[in-house]
Amino acid sequence: MAKVKICETVLRDSHQSLIATRMTTEEMLPVLKQMDEIGYHAIEAWGGATFDSCLRFLNEDPWERLRKIRAEVKNTKLQMLFRGQNILGYRHYADDVVEYFVQKSIANGIDILRIFDALNDPRNLETAIKATKKEGGHVQVAISYTTGETYTPEYYVDYTRQLVNIGADSICIKDMAGLLKPFDAEILVKAIKKDFPDLPLELHTHYTSGLASMTAIKAIEAGVDIIDTAMSPMAMGTSQPPTEPLVAALQGTPYDTGLDLDKLNVISKYFTTLREKYLASGLMTPKVLKVDVNALLYQVPGGMLSNLISQLQQQGKLDKLTECLEEVPRVRKDAGNPPLVTPSSQIVGTQAVLNVLTGERYKMVTKEFKGLVRGEYGQTAVPIDPEFQKKILKDEKPITCRPADLLKPELEDLRKKVAPYAEQEEDVLSYALFETVATKFFDQRKAAKLNLDADNADKEQKIHTV
Questions:
Q1: What is the per-residue burial (b if ≥16 Cβ within 10 Å, else e) of 135-149?
Q2: H or E, element range at 173
């Protein structure tokens, strides 16, 4: 038995799940030094949807966010979530873009890259793993956990073996929809630890179905090394299990985390104030805070659920939420039963919404759903029915190779396109992932700088006049 380590998610997945990733950098900065003194194994602070949200909604440079966090967090490892060949976007990118993104992530302050593929296709992980190794980062590969006939403990042990063979330094069981039940967690952790006793194993789960804290305890008893938690004001619901209760539960046991509850309470009070602000503004809704055991049926991850609600609210169709949730597993089955995690969760979720709102299944098909069925995102664990594939693809041929093998190097061409806007080397990567959104951000950044220069010139003129 060993002390359990804690990875804190409040700066990334916690607010991605509860408030659609709207926590600003300025809201994070005042509490970072206190967080750095806690003794966390790591703080998950970047990646996932934070990059997109910074540019799209917050008018922030995600790279500057990372640098600011790193400047305050000097003792604790910073972790990010990285979507393999998808990086932080919603399509596959050429290998040179993946490699450069990894390089810049580590150069700007990331220590641990949690790399995953939505389909658990190891071919989509190899480039990011090799790049992380080259840059001296820690490679944590995440297993996208889901349930179904194919997804047995043997399946996950075999997948772990493949990941270790291509360079994983540690493994994370990524239970993005809160599907992992306590006794199933015990079986799975023991199965992986039996074959890989010295491999660090982490558990990431969500509270959506109400199982998370129970699942964490059983995983700990089975030998898991690290647990992902969120500070209690930003925990539970579609977020992670709360940090403080788990720390308290393990005190005085062989698994004692060694973390100080009094110090954690200081941080908790800070995030309580933010929580109250989010509730008052409507950014945090009761729908994402309650336990929903139906998640075990729909397999909808927290971030997907909050975004699904947001989509339907914008269209005035929130009354269709239950129908859309019921349609999700049907669409998932048609698409080869992929685990539901970004980008497959968004792809399946959006198609489910279309099926419900149009009143006819697959009357309209998104480009992304067509791509998933075609094999543009990789190979699904369950083969897609050829008849369904033909219905969706029409005359297009399915892809059977590693999708990125079909992509030409992109970086030099992207550098030329971003040249009129670029103010830092990392801008080419923002542009690569979110061209339209990044361009708008670059324009706003330039306008803000011109206004600042004009204000400063005006002040100078007044001083000289005086």
A1: bebbbbbbbbbbbee
A2: strand 170-175
